[in-house]
Amino acid sequence: DIVMTQSPTSMSISVGDRVTMNCKASQNVGSNVDWYQQKTGQSPKLLIYKASNRYTGVPDRFTGSGSGTDFTFTISNMQAEDLAVYYCMQSNSYPYTFGAGTKLELK
Amino acid sequence: EVQLVESGGGLVQPGRSLKLSCAASGFTFSDYYMAWVRQAPTKGLEWVASISYDGGSTYYRDSVKGRFTISRDNAKSSLYLQMDSLRSEDTATYYCTTDEEVEDYWGQGVMVTVSS
Lengths: 107, 116
Known about the structure:
The complex is a heterodimer. Chain A is mainly β. Chain A has strands spanning 4-7, 10-13, 19-25, 33-38, 45-49, 53-54, 62-67, 70-75, 85-90, 97-98, 102-106. In chain A, the strands form 2 sheets. In chain A, strands 2, 4, 5, 6, 9, 10 and 11 form a 7-stranded mixed beta sheet that branches. Chain A has a 4-stranded antiparallel beta sheet with strand order 1-3-8-7, with no helix packed on it. In chain A, strand 5 (45-49) and strand 6 (53-54) form a beta hairpin. The termini of chain B are far apart. Chain B is built from no helices and 10 strands. The relative contact order of chain B is 0.31. The A-B interface holds A 1, 34, 36, 38, 43-46, 49-50, 55, 85, 87, 89, 91, 94-101 and B 35, 37, 44-47, 50, 59-62, 95, 101-102, 104, 106-109.
């Protein structure tokens, strides 16, 4: 199975910060990486698909980049409503695999 | 409005079976691959299984292969997960979701607890 190593595990941030997290795949997954947001008590929501494509209705402060094995997700201007756990997932081949998540907390 | 509504969860003893259902509405169900994703308490997301448009192809994570069966009924716009030989490590919230990147829909999740 493809292992998705996500870092960091958590971040203490302030409103207005630029937030960057990373995912490294254990083998080449092309551009087939998605990023999800999960707020406490809610179902996950897709933010970015195929590494860099913003899903419908997602604000442009959320961006993704990367290909092959290294991927980055950025929130350019952190808002309070962005507090959540963020997961990367490779959809290049079954079994799909998720990173362990990055939890954003207020400083 | 798109809706995915899971049902069938609950408390079950190890070794027993449970069948989850997911009722879809608001989109053309037969046009979508579908999947089950689970999340153990306080843990991360874990893909469980996917199924093709007509049910002809199915895919499973190794830890559930041979124990879980994903299926669908397009006439009823419903997705199912038959879970046999349940183990304590199967305890989780199970989400029904589309396995399509450009159309991402999720249910609210249903809790399955495997315990004696």
